[in-house]
Design a protein that fits this description.
262 residues; alpha/beta; Rossmann fold; five-stranded parallel beta sheet; 11 helices; 56% helix; globular
Length: 262
């Protein structure tokens, strides 16, 4: 039996929230290993990118490709979290929507260089309104689903610096805005939530305590294994020839073509 909102329940559907570089993947993997509760997640943006826009980096996507990426990740989450069994979710169905709203404010390619961001701002005139309408509609759908899907949320605040590894197509302003928006959405869902910070060990220990989770593997061992798995997953993507192709320097004409499409 799990402790959720002061009540005992025989299952738990727990969403671990947090923006880029907050340690969600390592925390959820370690928590899953330590408790034996399955971890669910969507394919990473980098994995989906190699299918929907081969040859492009995340900073080179236009608005339609970004919406397609978000919808694919939402579809994966719905599929993976549709059963009745307990799970720990790496993120939640609202994450892609939050990232979409943040991009509209900061810029659709917030981690790109200033020239590309400036060009996108210019090409967005007259084209931004339909994207805004879609994202607002998408938001209504994901928030309604999240309010009935998850038993509780744990939000991981921004405590670590953004890793400059080229994988995260964001900026610090985008990250701060996403963090704030995520927490505002969670507060409005009407489900129990907690904000848990600290090291990975402190986070996992606190979450186990909050929800009275059984421990089937020592926490230190679970964290070591989680870090190994997350690292291996990233390396597998980096070793993929499609990923390497996208990282190669583009010609000037191709870069201009990408910049001209909002």
């Amino acid at each position: 039996m799990y402790l959720i909102g002061g009540q005992r329940r025989d299952h738990i559907k727990l969403a671990i929230s947090g923006t880029y570089s907050t340690g969600k993947s390592t925390t959820t993997e370690a928590l899953s290993l330590a408790t034996g509760i399955p971890r669910t997640h969507a394919m990473t943006a980098r994995e989906i990118l190699m299918e929907i826009a081969p040859g492009k980096t995340l900073n080179e996507l236009n608005s339609i490709e970004l919406l397609q990426l978000g919808l694919r990740r939402f579809e994966e989450r719905v599929h993976n979290e549709s059963g009745s069994d307990s799970f720990i979710s790496d993120g939640s169905v609202v994450h892609e929507w939050v990232y979409g709203t943040a991009r509209l404010q900061v810029g659709i390619n917030p981690g790109a260089n200033w020239a590309l961001r400036a060009m996108k701002a210019v090409t967005g005139f007259g084209r931004k309104a339909p994207v805004t309408d879609y994202i607002e509609m998408f938001g209504d759908i994901v928030k309604a689903r999240a309010s009935v899907l998850y038993d509780a949320y744990v939000h991981l605040p921004v405590e670590f610096s953004l890793r400059a590894d080229g994988h995260r197509p964001v900026s610090e302003p985008f990250r701060r805005l996403s963090d704030q928006t995520l927490l505002e959405v969670i507060r409005g869902l009407g489900v129990p939530y907690e904000v848990v910070g600290g090291s990975v060990y402190e986070r996992v220990s606190r979450i186990i305590e909050l929800f009275d989770l059984d421990v089937v593997m020592p926490i230190e061992q679970a964290i070591d294994e989680a870090q190994h798995r997350v690292g291996s997953s990233i390396k597998a993507i980096e070793d993929d020839e499609r990923y390497k192709q996208a990282q190669r320097k583009k010609s000037l004409s191709r870069r201009v073509t990408y910049a001209m499409r909002y």
